[in-house]
Design a protein that fits this description.
The chain is of the alpha/beta class. Helix content is about 40%, strand content about 15%. It starts with a strand and ends with a helix. It is globular and about 45 Å long. The mean pLDDT is about 95. The protein has helices at about 15-30, 50-55, 85-90, 100-105, 110-120, 135-140, 140-155, 160, 185-200, 215-220, 235-250; strands at about 5-10, 40-45, 65, 95, 125-130, 165-170, 205-210, 225-230. The structure holds 1,3-dihydroxyacetonephosphate (13P). 1,3-dihydroxyacetonephosphate binds next to strand 8.
Length: about 250
């Protein structure tokens, strides 16, 4: 069975003190050991990257990420952060194309493609987020839509490059306070489509959107799902630890 990637993006939350406390608690809990069959990861906001890296410590089994990075290595791009800068701060994952960035910050298939290439160029793992709106789902277009998003962003990659990519399917209608948890039944077809295209070719196929302690085990049971990308439930360390426990149990079953 593939390693299950279980991680959280803090989105625009947490002070440095809160971020440090979360990361310190995680380090103490793991005590240097990776839970068998599970790859933990955490994606704080930029301001907390180095603080979280410090708290996790060197040789941490937890991968650290950033929520976005520019496709250029450096230059006159006010307000942006580059992949080399993210790497310098300790990041090993670059989240790309979250629906909140597509909706509010003009992220497109073309910009996600450039950012995936930049992350790979510097040896970081691109965590490509894809997902359709409620309207697309209601029209029956979910699988076609997400395959197009993924195909566009991953266009032209060699098999070796593709093998270093993680894809997170996060339907927009299932994300955040305004979303509703997806049922397992609703996710079978999209994951069948993603699995047919990418299973065994990428590092992981994750699910995200209102993951909680009640639905996590069921979501991990969906064919082709190899991990969870979590917001709110993991923002309290206790929630994240419980998700790691559920995943480890699933990995061992
Ligand atoms: P929630 O788990 O809070 O719905 O957020 C999911 C998400 O967008 C992770 O990137």
């Amino acid at each position: 069975m593939s390693t299950l990637w279980v991680g959280t993006s803090w989105k625009m939350t947490k002070t440095l003190a809160e971020g440090r406390a979360w990361a310190r608690g995680l380090r103490e809990h793991l005590a240097g050991r990776t839970p068998a069959g599970v790859q933990p990861f955490v994606i704080p906001s930029f301001t907390a990257t180095t603080a979280v890296a410090e708290e996790l410590g060197e040789d941490s089994p937890v991968l650290l990420g950033v929520q976005n990075a520019h496709w250029e290595d450096a230059g006159a791009w006010t307000g942006e952060v580059s992949v080399p800068q993210a790497k310098d701060a300790g990041a090993r994952i670059v989240e790309i194309g979250h629906s909140e960035r597509r909706e509010h910050f003009g992220e497109t298939v073309e910009t996600t493609r450039r950012k995936v290439a930049a992350a790979l160029r510097h040896g970081l793992t691109p965590l490509l987020c894809i997902g359709e709106s409620a309207a697309v789902k209601e029209a029956g277009g979910s699988s076609g839509f997400i395959l197009e998003q993924a195909g566009g962003a991953l266009d032209g990659l060699t098999a070796d490059e593709l093998s270093r990519v993680v894809i997170a399917y996060e339907p927009i209608w299932a994300i955040g306070e305004t979303g509703r948890p997806a049922t397992v039944e609703e996710l079978v077809d999209p994951f069948a489509a993603l699995g047919a295209e990418y299973s065994g070719k990428v590092t992981g196929l994750l699910y995200g959107g209102s993951v909680n302690l009640d639905n996590a085990a069921g979501l991990l049971g969906i064919e082709h799902v190899t991990g969870l990308f979590v917001g709110r439930t993991a923002w309290q360390l206790e929630g994240y630890l419980e998700l790691l426990r559920i995943a480890a149990e699933h990995a061992g079953s």
